[in-house]
């Protein structure tokens, strides 16, 4: 398959972006026949719609870890196609979400700032506007050191041993000395071994007692972490903004103090809503928060939750609004998914398990503007609600929630 054939399969405006940023007949479509075939293959994957889906991010992350570009070591039309396909999803992610895919985030940011991509994207605005990614505060990626190589034994060593055998008298003396030392060590170690055994039994007893004191629901929730991601693992609660101000070091971020009905007091939450919701509309706002994401550092301020917001189906430029719980809701009220009422949220989502990233693409608003999770496998609809009724996005139908 040629690149032009694959290109024709792309839908507009993605096809226009690739055609404009990668000139036909140039090396952007491959320098060698092998590279040309690989570029065409990647464009075809993008056209098929599979490679850039959030549920495929784990595979794409593994592919991009060692690469700067998709094909060989230079920029091609395949990079433009993948960037354009990723744009709708990446543009809606919160930092905690894109931080969990460092290779994809690094790759996307690199390609979006490529001169030919930016020039073409500006002519197609706002479809491929620049996505502001807070890479400065991305978590440090630990790299494991290679295991030390085992040293090969010198071949000369056995020969040397053969040449100079140890005298039998010396062997007997060494053996007797070793036996005596072993006896001394055993006697000295006995009290220590007894102490370790007692401490081990004490720790086991304390562990059992602690587990017995934990509510069964919490124990079951921890066990559930090992299973397939389900919506009930996500801890949604009603919150109220008791204070809000602009982030001192980021023009697009608010720093809110949100009361989730906890004895420990309000949580500090950072959200990128400055350009979408006026600060006066944020004051005392009743909202829905995601309360068990791993805390994330946002330009020097740690955020301990995420507000659930609805993004217009045509993108951020068309508007973002906060998801609202039903009238009369109070801070701390439980928010759950219909059909998963008995499920218990995890105490904290493990970023490696990607629970939120797996479930979130199914978050949407129905024709009634009610918030819901639609199971991508079965199409079943599960409204997001409290005991008083469904949560809503007041003005958006078909919005994505994040």
From TrEMBL:
Residues 136-231 are annotated as: Disordered. Residues 230-336 form the TRNA-binding domain. Keywords: Cytoplasm, Protein biosynthesis, RNA-binding, tRNA-binding. The keyword Transferase does not apply. GO terms for molecular function: tRNA binding. It comes from the Eukaryota. The keyword Transcription does not apply. Pfam families: Arc1p_N_like (PF21972), tRNA_bind (PF01588). One of its GO terms (cellular component) is methionyl glutamyl tRNA synthetase complex. Residues 1-133 form the GST C-terminal domain. Residues 137-185, 192-226 have a biased composition (Basic and acidic residues). This is tRNA-binding domain-containing protein.
């Amino acid at each position: 398959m040629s690149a032009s054939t694959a290109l024709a399969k792309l839908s507009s405006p993605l096809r226009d972006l690739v055609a404009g940023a990668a000139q036909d007949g140039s090396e952007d479509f491959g320098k060698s026949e092998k590279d040309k075939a690989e570029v065409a293959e990647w464009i075809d994957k993008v056209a098929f719609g599979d490679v850039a889906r959030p549920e495929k991010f784990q595979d794409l992350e593994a592919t991009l870890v060692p690469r700067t570009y998709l094909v060989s070591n230079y920029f091609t039309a395949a990079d433009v196609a993948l960037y354009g396909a990723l744009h709708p999803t990446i543009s809606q992610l919160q930092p905690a979400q894109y931080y969990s895919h460092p290779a994809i985030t690094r790759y996307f940011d690199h390609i979006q700032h490529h001169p030919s991509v930016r020039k073409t994207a500006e002519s197609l605005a706002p479809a491929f506007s620049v996505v502001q990614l807070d890479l400065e505060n991305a978590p440090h990626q630990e790299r494991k050191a290679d295991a030390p190589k085992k040293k090969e034994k010198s071949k000369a060593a056995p020969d040397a041993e053969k040449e100079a055998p140890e005298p039998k008298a010396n062997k007997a003396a060494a053996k007797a000395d070793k036996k005596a030392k072993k006896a001394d060590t055993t006697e000295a170690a006995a009290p220590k071994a007894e102490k370790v055994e007692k401490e081990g039994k004490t720790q086991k007893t304390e562990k059992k007692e602690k587990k017995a004191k934990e509510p069964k629901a919490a124990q079951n929730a921890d066990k559930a972490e090992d299973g397939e991601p389900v919506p009930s693992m996500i801890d949604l609660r009603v919150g109220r903004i008791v204070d809000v101000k602009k982030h001192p070091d980021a023009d697009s971020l608010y720093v809110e103090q949100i009361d989730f009905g906890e004895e420990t007091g309000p949580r500090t939450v950072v959200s990128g809503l400055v350009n979408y919701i006026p600060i006066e509309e944020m004051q005392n706002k009743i909202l829905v928060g995601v309360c068990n994401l791993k805390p994330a550092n946002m330009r020097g301020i740690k955020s301990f939750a995420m507000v659930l917001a609805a993004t217009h189906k045509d993108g951020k430029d068309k508007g973002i609004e906060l998801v609202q719980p039903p009238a009369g809701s109070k801070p701390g009220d439980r928010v759950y998914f219909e059909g998963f009422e008995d499920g218990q949220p995890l105490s904290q989502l493990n970023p490696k398990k990607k629970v939120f990233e797996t479930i979130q693409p199914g978050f949407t608003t129905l024709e009634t503007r009610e918030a819901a999770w639609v199971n991508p496998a079965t199409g079943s609809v599960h409204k997001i609600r409290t005991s008083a009724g469904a949560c809503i996005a007041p003005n958006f139908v078909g919005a994505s929630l994040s």
